[in-house]
Amino acid sequence: MSKEVSNGVHHPATKRPPMPSPLRNSKFFQANLRILVTGGAGFIGSHLVDKLMENEKNEVIVADNYFTGSKDNLRKWIGHPRFELIRHDVTQPLLLEVDQIYHLACPASPIFYKHNPTIKTNVIGTLNMLGLAKRVGARILLTSTSEVYGDPLEHPQREEYWGNVNPIGVRSCYDEGKRVAETLMFDYHRQHGIEIRIARIFNTYGPRMNIDDGRVVSNFIAQALRGEHLTVQAPGTQTRSFCYVSDMVDGLIRLMEGDSTGPVNLGNPGEFTIMELAETVKELINPAVKVTVVENTPDDPRQRKPDISLAKELRVGAQGQPPQGPPSHGGRLQVPPRLPRRP
Ligand SMILES: O=c1ccn([C@@H]2O[C@H](COP(=O)(O)OP(=O)(O)O[C@H]3OC[C@@H](O)[C@H](O)[C@H]3O)[C@@H](O)[C@H]2O)c(=O)[nH]1
């Protein structure tokens, strides 16, 4: 049976993992690892593709429907012999031969998923990718989210916490969708022996966020650059923790390569109020702009900060040694707990 560890809790698989295609071991078949990245044209996905493509033993296939992602994010790889790009919506089955699947596809910005609810993407998309993993014996990693904790009653959030989620709220297509996706992953693991990995991603920022993405870091920066008011949604005392995208990508790859199924929190434990973030962006970019408190929706989580002890222990987070290649940012998954201030 599978030797994977699930957060110290036993989730025995009833079957051995499906066998990869015998062609993989054929002497005429190249030994490259073939990796599918769903949502690979998006913000985190495209950075993940960049990192995977650095390894000459990897072949990368991206499937994306470009609802929030963009071909532009992958421009440098188009035409590369180890790279393939497919316009595909994961709510439809996908037939490929791959060894690993990074399943990221899902709009992650609240304004996008409230406009076009993501429950089908999360449920049917994950089911389709699990079907693919089962057929070809691939290992599959799901990017779940800190939103599975809802408006948390425990702080910081540990993986053992089951969350406080409104099943009929405007965010439920995303948070409940990801919760069902996690359920499907564990059902396929226990029933079919699929090798699964689950990352719970906390707020992440960095280059290639859409300028009109609606998420707070890109919003404030764009507003400050345009000389507009920084719109702090009420009350402004709600907190978030922000992780730089390259650190997130390192964590995802280490989790995929390791032995733990997860779920594992990936993020930066440094915590800000949104008002503090606005003041910092204002000070760094445009001290002349005003900070205005605007209306908010009732289900906006009031506090969020990951407990990353498990990531550290499993060496997918801070202080861990990467399984391959040199660590970026000194091997730490964290960035400093406060954004740098002007001298
Ligand atoms: O212009 C803005 C945008 C957002 N905000 C506030 O900033 C906080 C963060 O909002 P974001 O939209 O960036 O992100 P959220 O934390 O609400 O959701 C995110 O959670 C983690 C990921 O899985 C997803 O990227 C996303 O769902 C919220 O409290 C929101 O009300 C503002 O005050 N002003």
What does the secondary structure layout of this molecule look like, with pairings?
Elements: E1 33-38, H1 43-53, E2 58-64, E3 83-87, E4 100-103, H2 110-115, H3 119-136, E5 139-145, H4 172-192, E6 196-201, E7 204-205, H5 216-226, E8 230-233, E9 239-241, E10 243-244, H6 245-257, E11 264-266, E12 271-273, H7 274-285, E13 291-294, H8 309-313
Parallel strand pairs: 1-2, 1-4, 2-3, 4-5, 5-6, 6-11, 7-10, 8-13
Antiparallel strand pairs: 9-12
Helix pairs in contact: 1-6, 3-4, 5-7
Bound molecules: uridine-5'-diphosphate-xylopyranose (UDX).
How far the N terminus sits from the C terminus, by CA atoms, comes to 57 Å
Per CATH, what is the topology?
Rossmann fold
Count of the domains = 1
Shape: globular
Rg, Å, rounded: 20 Å
List keywords for this structure.
343 residues, Rossmann fold, 7-stranded parallel beta sheet, 13 strands, 16% strand, globular, binds uridine-5'-diphosphate-xylopyranose
Overview of this protein structure:
With 343 residues, this protein is α/β, with parallel strands linked by helices. The protein has one domain: NAD(P)-binding Rossmann-like Domain (Rossmann fold, 3-Layer(aba) Sandwich). It is built from eight helices and 13 strands. It is globular. 43% of the residues are buried. Mean pLDDT is 89; it is low at 318-343. The chain binds uridine-5'-diphosphate-xylopyranose (UDX). Uridine-5'-diphosphate-xylopyranose binds next to helix 5 and strand 8. The site of uridine-5'-diphosphate-xylopyranose (UDX) has 20 residues, from helix 5 and strand 8.
